[in-house]
Automatic annotation (TrEMBL):
Residues annotated as domain Aminoacyl-tRNA synthetase class I anticodon-binding: 324-464
Gene name of the encoded protein: gltX1
Complex and partners: Monomer.
This protein's name: Glutamate--tRNA ligase
Enzyme category, top tier: ligase
């Protein structure tokens, strides 16, 4: 198959964007983007009873957060019903499909008789080769004439060649008796009309491929490249479900995972490039191929997701990280940062990024720059402010008043004061953390002082020297 590669993601709008669907979208996006191809989006909204505009909006929002941009307009499958029906009638005209007048009662009676005789319950319509002159004036469905001998081979890039005997396939319905097309027909027509060259989807669709190939063949259309990817399981090896935790990608945004970390993790979920665990989007686009997808179900592992997310936070540009942090706060239902807080976060980002695996951890590390005086004091931090340490802070404050506000000078002054009190700076660091942040675990004392500035640093040290535990 030559020409431009075209992939698609085709979710049903019946709920949020599931984590499995997100990975399918990512694989299609990476495959197309890495080869100068197109990545298309189709909403399979033919099930009017279950499809909702809210679900469509949730899917688009999830893809937006993940950064999976699509080419062209979003295609509505339901809007193409007339085109799908047209193809069914075209197959009828070609003699590759037929009108079936069997009622539901007749079909069920056939199956019951087959069961009783121990035969296949695949329905064999008596109308398959009937003379059109014998057709009654009654409701009918249009069925595809499936080959009855030989076999259908699905040449799959992940599963290998999968052979299905044609006598295991029924003459599937293309158009219902009310003239509406079935999903299986709509998928094939849409994929053909959209120019889709590669169908990358969950392996729960593998059996559908054999039936869909019947339509491609009957219409004389090129069959796309198939790649059916294994499902995602929980850590216990069972199919991913609500009991394993979050299922919708929106929940992962609300938990504070960065989109880049999520993309990296989802790409590694069932696909590998050597031993590489951490990689950028550019590397993923360059490396991603169908041969790297495994046949076994992937297991979702929160620890790996956290680890990769932390690495992506560490390398992110400060402005981009602040922008995504603001989006996280909104998604999680928290108050937005004030302008002053945002400016402080931006200045502090260089010393916050390391070792923060999620945005809540990043915010906790940034407590010193987000908090206002008087600081709320953690119990462990408060315990650092005993009488001796408060005395040292009292003598440190005037010495810092006229110090030039550079790291070297701040280190020199604090070390000298510690020495004068017969101790080392290491012993002074705990009380200073408490004074500056109200926390026992913080970024470097000197980073905090530089970010807070002289006035705020001195004010916090003064507060701590005057209060604290006895």
């Amino acid at each position: 198959m030559s020409g431009q590669i075209v992939t698609r993601f085709a979710p049903s709008p019946t709920g949020y964007l599931h984590i499995g669907g997100a990975r399918t979208a990512l694989f299609n996006w990476l495959y197309a983007r890495g080869r100068g191809g197109k990545f298309l989006l189709r909403i399979e909204d033919t099930d009017k009873a279950r499809s909702t505009p809210e679900a469509t909006a949730a899917i688009l929002k999830g893809l937006g957060w993940l950064g999976l941009d699509h080419d062209g307009d979003v295609v509505s499958q339901a809007a193409g019903a007339a085109r799908h029906a047209e193809v069914a009638h075209d197959l009828l005209d070609k003699g590759r499909a037929y009108k079936c007048f069997s009622t539901q009662d007749e079909i069920e009676a056939f199956r019951e008789a087959a069961r009783a005789e121990g035969k296949s319950t695949l329905f064999q319509s008596p109308w398959r080769d009937a003379d059109p002159a014998a057709h009654p004036d009654a409701p009918f469905v249009i069925r595809l004439k499936t080959a009855t001998e030989g076999s259908t081979v699905i040449r799959d890039e992940v599963q290998g060649d999968v052979t299905i005997r044609n006598d295991q396939l029924d003459d599937m319905v293309l158009l219902r008796s009310d003239g509406t097309p079935v999903y299986m027909l709509a998928v094939v027509v849409d994929d053909h009309d959209m120019g889709v060259t590669h169908v990358i989807r969950g392996d729960d669709h593998l059996n559908n491929a054999a039936r869909q190939m019947g339509i491609y063949t009957a219409m004389g259309w090129d069959v796309p490249v198939w790649a059916h990817i294994p499902l995602i399981h929980g850590a216990d090896g069972k199919k991913l479900s609500k009991r394993h935790g979050a299922l919708g990608v929106d929940e992962y945004q609300g938990m504070g995972y960065p989109a880049a970390g999520m993309r990296n993790y989802l790409a590694r979920l069932g696909w590998s490039h050597g031993d590489d665990e951490f990689f950028t989007d550019d590397q993923a686009k360059e490396w991603f191929d169908l041969t790297g997808i495994g046949k076994s179900p992937a297991r979702f592992d929160f620890k790996k997701l956290e680890n990769l997310s932390g690495q992506h936070i560490a390398i992110a540009e400060d402005a981009a990280l602040l922008h995504e942090l603001q989006a996280y706060l909104q998604a999680a239902g928290h108050s937005a940062l004030t302008e002053a807080q945002a400016n402080g976060m931006y200045r502090a980002m260089y010393c916050l990024k390391e070792r923060a695996r999620t945005f809540p951890e990043l915010i906790e590390k940034a407590h010193f720059v987000l908090a206002n005086r008087p600081l709320d004091m953690e119990e462990k931090a408060n315990a650092q402010l005993d009488t001796v340490s408060r005395g040292i802070l009292q003598s440190l404050t005037p010495q810092l008043q006229n110090a030039s506000w550079t790291r070297d000078e701040l280190e020199a002054v604090t070390s000298r004061i510690a020495e004068e009190h017969g101790t080392k700076f290491g012993k002074l660091a705990g009380p200073m953390r408490a004074a500056l942040a109200g926390r026992a675990v913080t970024p470097s004392v000197f980073d905090m002082m530089l970010i807070l500035g002289r006035d705020e640093t001195l004010a916090r040290l003064t507060d701590a020297a005057a209060t604290g535990s006895a």
